[in-house]
Amino acid sequence: MTFDSSTETVAILYDIENAPFEMLDYTLGKARKYLPCRMIVASDWEKRPEQKCWDRLMRREGFTFRQIERKIDGKNSLDYALFDAAIMLRDEGVRKFFIITTDSDFVKIVEILREGDTNPYIIGVGTKQASQVLRDAYDQFMCYPPESKKKPQEAMKKAVVKKVQTETTK
């Protein structure tokens, strides 16, 4: 699937209850590679007013932020609201999604987005604790925080230390 960033819309669905603010910030940085295009970030900002970073975040150029309305209260109310937002965005023509969560319930949202002939491209962003089922549901999975690649020198030092330890125990 090709993606023409000049004419497409990218939606970022943020599970604010199961992913820290830093994960959203990381994802917005990754999503920048698709600019210029219309970026919509959907979540429930009003339920977390104690996080003062929303004001700064919402001033980012090139992004539109949508407040999600929860139609019900209680457990999983944000999940249902994000499901509804995803369907609405899909119906508006969005074909590329970032979903930020570590909650396996979001496998269902991926299945819903894939219904019909829209063929969306879905990128998941989660922690290394995210289940394999959740990871496999996406076209692409990004781990937060990104795992740093060990420098060759560090790997070599560890190998030498291990070899010395092995030889001294013989």
Distinct helical segment count:
6
Q: What gross morphology would you assign?
A: globular
What percentage of residues falls in helices of 4 or more residues?
25-40%
Strand content: 15-25%
What letter string, H or E per element, gives the SSE order? EHEHEHEHEHEH
CA distance, first residue to last residue? 56 Å
Using only C-alpha atoms, the radius of gyration works out to: 20 Å
Supply the helix-strand structural class: alpha/beta
Number of strands: 6
- Unreliable segments (pLDDT under 50, ≥5 consecutive)? none
Strand order of the largest sheet: 3-2-1-4-5-6
User: Could you give a short account of the major beta sheet?
Assistant: 6 strands, parallel
**Arithmetic mean pLDDT:** 79
Verbal overview:
- The protein is globular, with a radius of gyration of 20 Å.
- The mean pLDDT is 79.
- It is an alpha/beta fold and 170 residues long.
- It has helices spanning 21-31, 53-57, 77-91, 107-113, 132-137, 152-168; strands at residues 9-14, 38-43, 63-67, 96-100, 121-126, 140-143.
- The chain has a 6-stranded parallel β-sheet, sandwiched between helices.
- The chain contains 6 helices and 6 strands.
Summarize this entry quickly.
With 170 residues, the protein is an alpha/beta fold.
List keywords for this structure.
about 170 residues, alpha/beta, 6-stranded parallel beta sheet, 6 helices, globular
Question: What's the topology here?
Answer:
Elements: E1 9-14, H1 21-31, E2 38-43, H2 53-57, E3 63-67, H3 77-91, E4 96-100, H4 107-113, E5 121-126, H5 132-137, E6 140-143, H6 152-168
Parallel strand pairs: 1-2, 1-4, 2-3, 4-5, 5-6
